[in-house]
UniProtKB/TrEMBL annotation:
Residue spans crossing the bilayer: 49-74, 108-127, 205-230, 242-263, 275-294, 314-331, 351-369, 381-399, 411-436, 442-462
Protein name: Chloride channel protein
Organism from which the protein derives: Rhodanobacter thiooxydans
Phylogenetic placement of the source organism: Bacteria, Pseudomonadati, Pseudomonadota, Gammaproteobacteria, Lysobacterales
One Pfam entry name: CBS
GO molecular function: chloride channel activity
Region (Disordered): 625-656
Skewed-composition ranges (Basic and acidic residues): 625-640
Domain of life: Bacteria
Span of domain CBS: 497-558, 562-620
Keyword terms: CBS domain, Chloride, Chloride channel, Ion channel, Ion transport, Membrane, Transmembrane, Transmembrane helix, Transport
InterPro entries recorded: CBS_dom (IPR000644), CBS_dom_sf (IPR046342), Cl-channel_core (IPR014743), ClC (IPR001807), ClC-type_chloride_channel (IPR050368)
Cellular component terms per the entry's GO annotation: chloride channel complex
Membrane topology: Multi-pass membrane protein
Length: 656
């Protein structure tokens, strides 16, 4: 009878996604290596990255032209709805370059109240009979697909999202175009990843590449788009993902430059370098705007909760939100549409205190109610206008109270824009780099870093979820909030494995082994035992269950029960490689062999050993201690044995 053993699986997965060096060994070692087909080579990147990079470049081109097409569609709808023509967008009198047509100069009077309702109704109808996933601002929905659905976005989203957003924004909805473009680019990348034979990780990279390329094409900000992909979509910082996404953003910006030129999206006049007091003021402004971002986030989801209580079908909610946006737009037409021209005015210092107060408050009311109603549109541009207005107002106040600070209103507006995004989304680096790339104002870089960091700090202390994660967190999706180095990568197998291993001989019979197991001695309580041959070399591994299985006759030798070589790692492997190998091979323990002699048994590594290794990580994070004392003459305290408690043993030592 053939013994029942686990079938070795997962070699290809280990080779491509984890360790390539953790190899099963057997007495015929060379044959085992040939059968495994897992050469010892770096897993930093593989040749697959060339294919993914080529696809990312194609995505960069496609996303750039899709972005241009969406902006054209928004402008066409705006021109038709508010000016009764399309000549501003198409024809010999069309405006040159990249622009977003503003409804602010319309002369249709009170009809402006009803105009956004057309877009709201269109978005509601498309959501009901197309996909409800088009509702919202795009990034949370992409995050959810990455985290829960292996980056598989339905193909219909590649046209449902941009068309619904174009109608919602073009008819006067107070949204930015960047969210729908990011969502559309991500859907396009996911579609390519579903049509081709790629892994889930590669499909995630393609999704992020398409999304980042869309944002880069709109704002000409390749680095900020790359960082946004890392902070909000990829949840990792690895070469295999960075390289394709970076190539996609560079390509998309290259297409933008070829179409519209290389100027900044939000040109800003030269501003003086801030002094130390002014810098302190900008940090204070950033912290205050960051606190405001918490309430902005709560307001958005509070409005959503109120709409959930309405006794009408959710398809009609966007119409109600759009009517509010239209009413606010009738009061101040500058709140309608994308409003990139308002951002220009803010960073150029064209708004006075009265305009800043009224415009900021009205834009906030219009955007929060419209977005909370479930329509389709972006958050970045509205947040910039709200935060920029608040930053400039705070700067005016500080200059009145502390005139010696000399706070520049234009830099303050820019800091407010970036700080409210950093606080509400906690994408710190994205906010700083984006504000710099879109204005190309080097004097603002230090204030941006200080202000956004203050906003990030306040937000992280008070608010658990962000404007990007609250919606999906309510549905039970856990979103990574920190990107830390893998602790298991830092620990070698040889540092934590059990060195004193109880082995059995291949020549022993079950008649000899079973009474020994039934004695109940401490050394018999292990769940697996390495089997060695006469020379002491590893022959295989047998579990306690197999040894006591009554289907095997007591006259059988242990060597007859071994049907495959043990699954092994060397002392030099990391615990991450070992853990990956355990999962791939579906085993709970690994034989540890020497670095120089892969047949020499050194120890055994169990899942318990891997878990125990985390004790040091937890201690370093939770326990406070002093290592220098002034009364000791600043001499370092000597290391004690208890410092290594819970870690296994010191490097190079043996377990007792």
């Amino acid at each position: 009878m053939t013994p029942a053993t686990d079938t070795p699986v997962g070699h290809a997965d280990v080779r491509t996604t984890g360790s390539t060096d953790a190899l099963p060994i057997a007495p015929a070692l060379g044959l085992s290596l040939d059968a495994a087909r897992m050469p010892r080579k770096s897993t930093l990147v593989t040749r697959r990255i060339l294919l993914i990079s080529v696809l990312a470049v194609i995505l960069g081109v496609a996303s750039a032209y899709v972005a241009q097409l969406l902006m054209l569609l928004i402008n066409l709808i705006t021109d038709l709805c508010y000016y009764g023509r399309i000549s501003d967008v198409i024809g010999p009198n069309a405006k040159p370059g990249s622009f977003v047509l503003s409804p602010a100069d319309t002369s249709i009077g009170a009809w402006v109240i009803l105009m956004p309702a057309i877009g709201g109704l269109t978005a509601g109808i498309m959501a009901r009979w197309g996909s409800r996933a088009i509702q919202g601002h795009g990034i949370p929905e992409a995050m959810e697909q990455i985290l829960t659905n292996e980056s598989n976005i339905p193909a219909r989203m590649t046209w449902l999202k941009p068309v619904s957003s174009a109608f919602a924004i073009g008819t006067g909805g107070p949204f930015g175009a960047e969210g729908p473009i990011i969502s559309t680019g991500g859907a396009l990348g996911s579609l390519i990843g579903q049509l081709l034979r790629v892994t889930a990780n590669e499909r995630k990279v393609l999704l992020a590449a398409g999304a980042a390329a869309g944002m880069a094409a709109v704002f000409g900000a390749p680095v900020a788009s790359l960082v946004l992909a890392v902070e909000l979509l990829l949840f990792e910082l690895r070469p295999r993902s960075l390289i394709p996404v970076a190539l996609a953003t560079v390509t998309a910006v290259g297409v933008r430059y070829a179409s519209y030129g290389a100027g900044p999206v939000f040109p800003m006049p030269a501003v003086p370098e801030p002094g130390s007091l002014a810098l302190a003021g900008f940090v204070l402004i950033g912290g205050l705007v960051g606190y405001a971002s918490i309430w902005v986030t709560r307001a958005v989801y509070g409005v959503e909760d109120l709409f959930e209580k309405l006794p009408i079908h959710w398809m009609w909610w966007p119409v109600i939100g759009a009517l509010v946006a239209g009413l606010v737009g009738w009061i101040d037409p500058r709140t309608l549409g994308v409003g990139y021209d308002n951002i220009d005015a803010l960073v150029q210092g064209h708004f006075g205190l009265a305009v800043l107060l009224s415009f900021g408050a009205l834009k906030f009311i219009s955007w929060v109610i419209s977005l909370g109603s479930g329509t389709s549109g972006g958050t970045l541009a509205p947040l910039f206008m709200i935060g920029g207005s608040l930053g400039a107002v705070l700067a005016i106040g500080l200059n009145q109270v502390l005139p010696g600070f000399h706070i520049d209103l234009r830099i303050a507006a820019l800091v407010g824009m970036a700080a409210i995004f950093a606080g509400s989304s906690r994408a710190l680096l994205t906010a700083v780099v984006f504000a710099f790339e879109t204005t190309r104002q080097p004097a603002a870089l230090l204030p941006l870093l200080g202000g956004c960091t203050a906003a990030y700090l306040i937000s992280a202390l008070i608010m658990r979820n962000t404007i990007m994660t609250e919606k999906i967190a309510r549905r039970g999706v856990r979103v990574p909030s920190e990107y830390a180095a893998d602790y298991l990568e830092q620990v070698a197998v040889g540092d934590v494995c059990s060195r004193e291993v109880v082995t059995l001989r291949a020549s022993q019979t079950l008649a000899e082994v079973r009474p020994w197991l039934n004695d109940g001695a401490p050394e018999t309580r292990h769940q697996g035992f390495p089997v060695v041959d006469e020379t002491g070399r590893v022959y295989g591994v047998l579990t306690r269950r197999t040894l006591l299985d009554p289907q095997w006759h007591y006259t059988q030798t242990l060597g007859e029960l071994v049907t495959r070589g043990p699954i092994a790692v060397t002392e030099g492997h990391s615990l991450r490689e070992a853990a990956d190998h355990m999962v791939a091979e579906k085993v709970g323990r690994l034989i540890v062999v020497g670095k120089d002699d892969s047949r020499r048994l050194v120890g055994i590594l169990t899942r318990g050993d891997i878990l125990a290794a985390h004790a040091r990580r937890l201690r370093e994070a939770r326990e406070s201690s002093r290592h220098l004392r002034f009364r000791d003459g600043l001499k370092p305290r000597p290391a004690t044995d208890d410092l290594m408690e819970g870690y296994g043993h010191a490097r190079g030592s043996k377990k007792p």
